[in-house]
Amino acid sequence: MPEDSIDHIDFDKLNEKAISQPLVNHIYTADPSAHYFDGKIYIYPSHDIESNIPFDDLGSHFAMEDYHVISVDRESGEATDHGVALHVKDVAWAEKQMWAPDAAHKNGKYYLYFPAKKADGIFQIGVAVSNSPKGPFTPEPEAIKGSYTIDPAVFEDEDGSYYMYFGGIWGGQLQKYRNNVYNSNNELPKPNEPALLPIVAKMTDDLLEFSEEPKEIKILDENGELLLEGDNDRRFFEASWMHKYNGKYYFSYSTGDTHFICYAIGDNPYGPFTYGGRILEPVVGWTSHHSICQVEDKFYLFYHDSSLSKGVTHLRSVKMVELEHQADGHIKTITPYSS
Ligand code: FUB
């Protein structure tokens, strides 16, 4: 939701109409990546802080420094903050802006994937390891070789393969890359050209590196054509996520400047994916970012909004709500505030 419409919002009324409330309110949390590990829901969010850095299109005001892990008790719905799981000062290669993370589990070890800016101002993605889903996590000394831009989402397929999806335009710097190579002169395509695409790479067995050159994943319209850059309501902006339902692969993402969470359906982890519709209508705050987590036979959408901070875009709160796949495989669109 654009910043200029926030002045007109009555937040008390809006909170009454919200379909869910913040899971925690002692800190601001955003970009929730949720996983069902060891019979419990764990959320790996960004930890939003007040930076006093003015709003800009590069997201400089998102100046996060650390990560907390939050778990949710399914019975009571009570959320527990397990404290600082990783701080930027402990990451040798990173300087600032610890943006949206994700986590994975394999053979008793837990992996936290996170983007951060290096001293040269370029985003890369790193990994940190722990013996517990709660952390603390020990970072690898270097960022993942060949990684770039933001918003890692690591998906474990049923055959035991893991894939990282990543990328984000504007502040996420994806527009500076073509074929995995950075050039500061590169910009977004023209509105009538195909939009930039999210990136995927299969992970090595130890989950610390890419086992292949990252490649683009195609998002197609109903005619099998790539979505265009000017199709702001549907084209990829940031916040990749992957989940599987009834044997199909659902790639979901944020459309950024139009504030939707959308999805596209494919037959394998590399796509192509065909645009399927909207998962979440706009929330209060500029950004929208989500994850989808299966807990036994139910699916939940984790998302954030800026209702607790009364509309401050970089002070967000994580929420959760049940998500429904319809009989035809489409996802029922969620409206975050009832009318
Ligand atoms: O939290 C910082 C950035 O805002 C994330 O990386 C984006 O996905 C957006 O939510």
UniProtKB/TrEMBL annotation:
GO biological process: xylan catabolic process
Pfam families xrefs: Glyco_hydro_43
Residues of the site described as Important for catalytic activity, responsible for pKa modulation of the active site Glu and correct orientation of both the proton donor and substrate: 151
Keywords from the named record: Carbohydrate metabolism, Glycosidase, Hydrolase, Polysaccharide degradation, Xylan degradation
Sample GO molecular function, one term: hydrolase activity, hydrolyzing O-glycosyl compounds
InterPro entries noted in UniProt: Glyco_hydro_43 (IPR006710), Glyco_hydro_beta-prop_sf (IPR023296), Glycosyl_Hydrlase_43_Enz (IPR052176)
Family statement: Belongs to the glycosyl hydrolase 43 family.
Name of the molecule in the record: Glycosyl hydrolases family 43
